[in-house]
Amino acid sequence: MSDFQRRDDFIPYNVPDITDAEINEVVETLKSGWVAKGPRTNRFEQEFAGYLGAKHAVAMNSCTAALHIALLAKGIGPGDEVITTPMTFASTASTIIHTGATPVFADIDYRTGCIDPDEIEKKITSRTKAIVPVHYSGQVCDLDRIYAIADKHGLFVSEDAAHALWSRYKGRLIGNKLQGAASYSFYATKNLCTGDGGMLVTDDDEIDARARILSGQGMSHNAWNRYAKGGSWKYDIAEPGFKYNMFDIQAALGLVQLSRLEEMQAARLKIAAKYQEAFGKIDALDPPFVPDYTTHCWHLYVLRIVPELLTIDRDQFIVELNERNVGTSVHFIPVHNMSAYQKRFGFVDSDFPMAQKHFERIISLPLYPTMTDEQVDYVIAAVTDIVETYHK
Ligand SMILES: Cc1ncc(COP(=O)(O)O)c(C=O)c1O
């Protein structure tokens, strides 16, 4: 019998790691007289690009915006097909639709949750123009294989790196020496948080130039500076654009968070190692498999249950965790299960069997730098107690 002791206070699924340093920088920004896109946004772009060793970084108000702009900057539009994974947040696919192109899903590699390169190959047609692989949870996609497919068929690769800041493929940071583009998210739950925010990173001068114009209302370059001394009131609209830019209050958070990234990552890695060690010993659990080519940033800890060995399913497992005061999430309900996609493209849930099987088994556990050792141990104890209570 388990000696599990239920705690009284709730462990949230996520809490952003904001210190006095971030708060002070935001206050400084507010006092500076420049709160819109300006000097701090520019510095954040430079420091972010410098951190990754990338040529260009364009700061946006979300990763969704960055994903949209990456495709538009490359001229993706009506009549084109873009291959991506169903195991992602909706914006990976909706941004394809917003360009006028058609999203084409390729199933995942069940071992990692990332898109399966063999499935990509099967989906290529004469209309395919791009691939949007998602570095799911901080795992990284098998990029050598994906870029080999892209090279063979002349396709653009726009990496969805929303989860993958700090992750490495074969020892190299995602975003470093990019052939295409990569989009990062700084949403509240991410490894670097600006509340909401994103960054488009590329080594391609043309993508960079077009992304700057498109994300800033289509205005000619440096129009953000038109209210400063020496700035010009004249601007042109080169093409109809979007209001997608980051602003300096977000960048203030981003600059400090970037300077604290290694410290925050060290805490994440420690928690993930504890989970891996504990859950690897339990037969009714299937902890994340990390291939040799991956250095995982542990944005998410996605635990799979083995329902064949339990008397409860994933949904009930989450209820049990909630009753034990542990917050959770599910990443993701596959996009092809969503009503908008089923109506528009005729998908049924079983269309992507690996994504579906993965979805039915997953639970994202709390994992953030401010978690205490006691909270981590408690989450492990709660999961273990549920398995012991409901083991067949
Ligand atoms: C895989 C993935 N791509 C894109 C996004 C969109 O990011 P944002 O909220 O910054 O627009 C998310 C959001 O969580 C995501 O999980």
TrEMBL record:
Keywords: Aminotransferase, Pyridoxal phosphate, Transferase. Gene3D superfamilies: Aspartate Aminotransferase, domain 1 (3.90.1150.10), Type I PLP-dependent aspartate aminotransferase-like (Major domain) (3.40.640.10). One of its GO terms (molecular function) is transaminase activity. It comes from Anaeromassilibacillus senegalensis. InterPro entries: DegT/StrS_aminotransferase, PyrdxlP-dep_Trfase, PyrdxlP-dep_Trfase_major, PyrdxlP-dep_Trfase_small. Transmembrane segments: none annotated. This is DegT/DnrJ/EryC1/StrS family aminotransferase. The keyword Transferase applies. Belongs to the DegT/DnrJ/EryC1 family. It comes from the Bacteria.
